[in-house]
Amino acid sequence: MRVRVRPGLALSTNARRLHLQFIIFGIVTGSTLAIATIGFAMVRQTENFLNIAHAQMMALGAFIGAFLVDRFDMNIFLAGAVTVVAVGLLGVVLSAVVFRPVRHQGGTVLLFTSIGLALMIYAVIIAIFSTRSRIYSVNFGGLHEFGGVNIATGELVIVGLALAGVIALQLFLGMTSLGRSVRAVASNGELAQVRGVPVNRVSNTIWFISSAFAAMAGVMIGVLSSVNAELGWHNSLIILAAAVLGGLRSIGGVIVAGLLLGIVMDVSALYIATAYRPVVAFGVLVAVLIVKPEGIFSVVRRKDSVVT
């Protein structure tokens, strides 16, 4: 016997499932955004400037990962690990060659230096990899259904890796001497140096972590969608929005802000064109900053911000 379902009830149920599906998409997007923003926020806390080149390091990581997978038929996890380490080391080299010589000139000079570096990395990406879009040749398996909502295996892997990266970073910052030194420099770099904290070693560590997390986010984006030369520019403002929304003072705040923006941007695709995702991100940012200018999760410290 065929059961009749009231149209309004069916529509309501389908609408709820559709919204839940896009919330799942948003969590995946937000996980990637959170990983990308953590590194950006760490440099801001410790080096006291906005590193505009950070998103280009993410794009570079995405292209290197795609190259390793396609050219050498490398396992995606091995390719991702190699990419993360390589881009992390490149970040250390660039910090020593590009930023350290002008560090004493202040944040404004460092900001414009990072813009110049972003343009250089962008040009290198085009010169080496061209402007052609690339797709990762990986297959994690099929879909998993939970309560009428479909989740791809690749999406579960990305969320799991993002969670593992966050946990590993928190353990490093809280349970190792070098991690505690990072926290000390973030709190008060001058005082940390007076007390014998190896500031240069800490700086290298921060640049490695920042660049490695950017590369990790780039590989995640490559697994989720296609990679093109404009990837860095498309994500730079969204990363900045997540960092400011999180307050630039707490890793936990940045993570929550990234997840929040990811969910809001993906759910907004139900109502407006996806091309307006950056507009949505900045709309949320402006709305929050009107109420709380220091960001949702900002905590004012006696001296300076602290990595927590």
The main sheet orders its strands as 1-2
Radius of gyration: 20 Å
Strand count? 2
Helix content estimate: over 70%
Which overall shape is indicated by the principal axes computed on the Cα atoms?
globular
* Share of residues in strands: under 5%
The major sheet is characterized as: 2 strands, antiparallel
Average residue-wise pLDDT: 86
Structural class assignment: mainly alpha
What's the number of helices? 11
What order do the helices and strands follow?
A: HHHHEEHHHHHHH
Note the gap between the termini: 60 Å
Low-confidence stretches: 1-11, 300-306
Word description of this protein:
With 308 residues, the chain is an all-alpha fold. The protein has 11 helices and 2 strands, in the order ααααββααααααα. Strands 1-2 form a two-stranded antiparallel ribbon. Helix 2 crosses helix 9. The longest helix has 41 residues. The N and C termini lie far apart (60 Å). The N terminus and C terminus are likely disordered.
